[in-house]
Amino acid sequence: MSRLSRKFNVPDELANLYDFANSLDVRRFTHHGVQHPQSDELMEPRGLGAWLSERGLSRSGAKVTREMLGAALQLRTDIRVYLECDPAERRKNERVVGLLDEALERFPLIVQAGRDGFTLRACRDDALAGLSAVVAELYNGSTSGTLDRLKMCAAEECRRVFFDRSKPATRRWCMSTLCGNRMKTRAYRARRRAAD
After folding, report:
1. Residue 104 belongs to what domain range?
2. What are residue 111's DSSP bridge partners?
3. Is 121 in contact with 110 (CB distance < 8 Å)?
4. 72 membership: H or E segment, kind and range
């Protein structure tokens, strides 16, 4: 679990998934006169290795190759596209589900029995085995219903993934005080211009 997932009260069972989806920061807005810098924590194999290690998801001595990085980036892209869909429409969108299925094939899981019940664990035994924890969170969240609360901000210049803690689960923006206000102000100005 990262500092950001704790700050925004993302449940532990979705924290790695949240962090993985947000390892790509495409926000492109100015706040208090400062342009938000875009970033990608997974730009190179070493970055992916560090990301996995920071979360306790890496195998000691396992090396991330360029090919592995490509598989991880495709998984992240397809997860973000899936989370961009309205939760009620996600499973109905055959194109999005098909792309995610293809990416998930590279991260197979097996069920393991233990003292505390059953858990999913990676079939892989390489540097990317840790991403299977992200895939397991995706599965567990879908079966418990908490995945429906993981959404992408509706603001085009943000696209940050957030956990919707509102009672009706109808939030559209990661932060109503930032993205919500900016979008509402923009809509208000557009209506004023149309009226003039």
Report:
1. 3-195
2. 120
3. yes
4. helix 66-84
Angstrom distance (rounded) from CA 55 to CA 142:
22
DSSP characters for 38-66?
PEETTSSHHHHHHHHHHTT-PPTT----H
Residue 16's closest CA among 56, 49, 75? 56
Question: Measured over all CA atoms, what is the biggest interatomic distance in the chain, rounded to whole angstroms?
Answer: 69
| Cα–Cα distance, 174 to 177 (Å, whole number) | 9
Which pLDDT score is estimated for 188? 57
- pLDDT of 4 reads 79
Model confidence over 44-82: pLDDT tens digits?
A: 999 999 999 999 998 777 899 999 999 999 999 999 999
Please give the tally of structural domains in the chain.
1
State which amino acid sits at residue 167: K
pTM for the model = 0.88
We report the CATH number of the domain holding residue 140 as 1.10.3300.10
